[in-house]
Structure formats: structure tokens, C-alpha cells
UniProtKB/TrEMBL annotation:
It is a multi-pass membrane protein. This is Uncharacterized protein. The keyword RNA-binding does not apply. InterPro entries: Oligpept_transpt, OPT.
Amino acid sequence: MFTALHKDENKPADGWTISPRKFFTRVFSGSVAFYFLPGLLFPALSYFSVITWFAPKNVIVANLFGVSSGLGLFPVTFDWAQIAYIGSPLVTPFWAALNILGGLVLVMWIAAPIMYYANVMYSSYMPILSAAVWDNTGKPYDVSKILTEDFLFDAEAYRNYSRVFLPITYVLSYALQFAALTALLSHTALWHGKDIWRQWSRSWAEIRKAPVNEYEPLNNLPEGNGRAASPNAYRHRNSTTSEPDMEDLLDAEDVHNRLMRRYPDAPMAWYLLTGITMAAVGMYVVEYYPVHLPWYGLLLALGIGAILFIPIGIVMAITNQQSSIYLICQLICGGVFPGRPVANMVFTTFGYISSTQGLKFASDLKLGHYMKIPPRLLFRLQLTVTIVSSLTQIGVLNWMLNYIPGICTTEAINGFNCPIARVHFNGSILWGVVGPKRFFGPGALYRPLVWAFFVGAVSPVILWYFARKDRKSILRKVNLAVVFGSLSWIPPATGLNFSVWAIVCYIFNYEIRNRRKNWWRKYNMMLSAALDSGLAFGVVVIFFGIVFPGWMKGFKWWGTEVYKQGCDYTACSYKEVPKGSTFGPSDW
């Protein structure tokens, strides 16, 4: 995107002669203008569950075709926010999208309804898809009933109230996340283990050597002539093969590496000092503030993120899909520090967010490498912006909590119902308050989910055994870490978010890429950036310019209300709990 916006070259691409700069500007403007329809004037275009509009009270229709609490079997929406809810489909390889779509079809569109209507794990008494957890009367779980004044678990109050029940898609999402963790480790070890060890050894050797950052022009080539190899490049190539092996690739020096040698690297000591200092600050906070997490718990969280950082990074680099360690952080903290919901949230933040943010920083460094930004300058920028953005986030959050009416409820204006925060809160209930033992211990209702760890560990081995013999095997395109891990977005995402995402990915990254390759190369990434930027700008303009001042207060018509009339929006359950009765096991 940066290159296209700053260079004047404009070659025709499959008959299109508009410059990338003009293309970006026009798509951006169109995206901002169009978002006024699904984002303000006609929200039914966003929640386009038209089949449920004809049978609003039919629970089965809402379950299957709904987009708020249904499986989204009618994948149509006119809102880029819905399409790109799990990330822009234009920047994900189509083969990776097929992995995700395969998981969606098998698990959420086939297994989920079968289990739901069979009332497996009492799921029929809850919505088929919901970001909430439920009690034994079919109502959202009131966690305040099982907490002390110090926000610690009250076992007696828990026994007097209710165990926690999960919707079937929530159950399957947890099973997939369990399988994704072990599949991530197995897949990485089998397909990339040797490469990781080789690169780790080489990098460690380079760190111990004195750095050489002198710029060396290529002999007999003009500067910037493209890729060039070092004198020893490809010395191991077998003359009978057409591709270099990994040693060849590691020995080769591309033009970006050569040009970046003009700049000194950011010393490793800078990273170590920053990491140690911030870890010390974190330990002070957890020890002297009432979060109920000891200092060694924080180190454990950071250790989990560090151990899984490389496997997650490899999968993300190849597929553009990030495997989440969110659940495993909650699970481990719940086992080691049970009955502490605040500690669980803090532990998860340090483990999961540190890993996620580290990948974003690595992505920044990669972009800076291609853009020829001095590493030391980029380090200072990252550090400064991290501090500024952290303070900004706190300020914005406090402003929102104080000034947005009904925030984090279904009555919130402009859709500020906090779905991701709700899932995070539910996780703190399950793992921080109730604890993994009550969910997965002997006789527990959800104990069978533990088998997902075994399935995730073994299935990549079976796949690898059959795929390694044939370099052209289609099985090499199957990444079980992606198949399992991508659906961790459900909830709060719905089947609609995945299905329309996959359809758009197919159109642009398969059909257009194969039929109009020049157009795709010139405009596809620009289109993604323009749509994302236009959406973000449109959201800000609509909220602060129209909604927050109250100019749309009382504005209602068919296009703002039709999708709210039926079971899809209100999240009806297939079975109702008789008044005064409960469901679930009698002995718990």
C-alpha cells in the first residue's frame, strides 16, 4: 500500500488504468459513504437474515439461518464490518480460508445442530449460539451470587445457586481451542522443527559474533538491481534439483538485507532491559494491588506466551491466521490459582496479549525492514507509541464507561454491547471462579472435552505421515492448527462472519487472482486497505458526528427494526425450562 501510494508508475492492469492512489481514494470515500446505510440508516443490511424475517418466531429457522444467535446458513450481508469481523478476507490465502471453511461446515454447521437438537449436555435449554453462559433456569448466569466481597469464589453460594452451563457452540469452540493448542505444537514440530532449530542455531551464532553493518555495493551491478546472493549462496545446491534447500535460502542475501546493513541494529540489550523492567513493574503491580495473582504467576503467564510465540508466528506468517492461546492461559491460571477471577483476567492479559502484541511488533519490524526504516529509530517509535497508546486506551475506556448510555448491554447506542469483553468476562467466571476441576474433573458434565487435547496432538501426525511422501499432495494444504484454532472467534463471532468472509476470499483470492492476475497484483491489497480504513473512519464520523450528540434519537423505521423482531435477535432456546423448574444433573 505504501509503495503504491508513493510511486508515480501506473501501468495498465487488465484494462484498468486508474492509478493506485486514485483507486484508494475513491474506494475509501465510497466505503465511508456506504457505511451510513448499514451503520446508521438501514442496519438490517448488516443483519440481513431475510429468511428469519418471514418466520420470526420459528426457533429452528432462527437457529439455522439467523445471524445474531444463529449459525448463519444464509451468508449474505452488505456490511464490511461483518465481512471483515475476523480480519480482511482479501489478505488471506484462499487455501487457508478453505481450512477455516472446512472446520466451520463440519463442526458448526453439521455437528452443532445435531448435538443441539439431541439435547447433548442440556444444550437445548440455551440458545444454539450465544456469548453468555447460563444457569439451570435458562437465564444468563449471575456471577455476583457466587462471589465474596473480595471477588473470591464462595463454594457454598455456588452449591445453592447453579452450576454453569454452556451453549453447544461454546462447548465446541472450547473443544476446538483445546485441539488447536496441541495441534499447533505437533504441526510445527513435524513440518518446521528442523528449520526452527537450524535458524535458532544460526541466529545464536550471529549474536555471539561482532555485528557487521557496513553497506557493501554489489560487484558489477547497479545499486538496487534486485536480489543478489552472497558469494557462498547456493553452494549446497544439488545440480539435479530445481529448488534450493533451506541452507541455500539462509545463505542467500536479498536486496533488503543488503540495504539495511547501512543502519546499526537495535542492541539486544535494549530489548532485554525493556522486558526486564516491564516485568518488574508488572510483578510490583500484582503483588501490591488486590488482583490476587502472585509475582511468580505473572512470570508463568509470560513464559507461556514466550514458549508458544514461534509456533504461533510460523502459522500466522504462512496462513495469516493467528492461533490463540487465550483459553490455555485461562485454563492454566484456573488450575494453579482457582477461585480468583481478577487474577485470571490479569494472568490471561499478560500471557495472551503479550504474545499477540509481540507478533504485531515483529510484523512492524518486518514492515520496517521492507520500508528501510532504521532499526533503532523503529525501536524508539514502538516504545513511545506503546506508552502513548496504553494511556490513551485507559482514557478512552473510562470516557466510554461514563458517557455512553447502556454500554455493554443490549440497549447500548450504536451497538456498543461489548461482545469480546463479554466472552472475556465469561472466561473469568468459568476458569477463574468455578475452576477447571469442576468442569473437567471426574463426573463433570464437560469432562469429555479433555479428549480434544489428544485429538489435536495425534491428528497432525496422521496427516503428516500421508502427506510427506508426495510433495504435490493436497494434504499439504491442510493445516489442522488453523482448522481448529480459527473457530475460537465463535463466540462472539457467528457463522455469518466466517461464511461471508470465505466467499469474499474465494472471489478475490481465487477467481480474480487466477482470471485477472495483473488487476489482483495492482489493486487487491489496496482495496483491502481502503475498505478497512473507510470503515474505521465511517464509524468515528457516525458515532461522534451523529449518534452521540443524539441527532438520531427516536429514529425508527422498518429497516432499523425488522431484524430485532424474532428469535434470532432475542436468542430463543429450542426447549423452555418450565416455570419454577430447573434443568441439568440433580447431583453435582
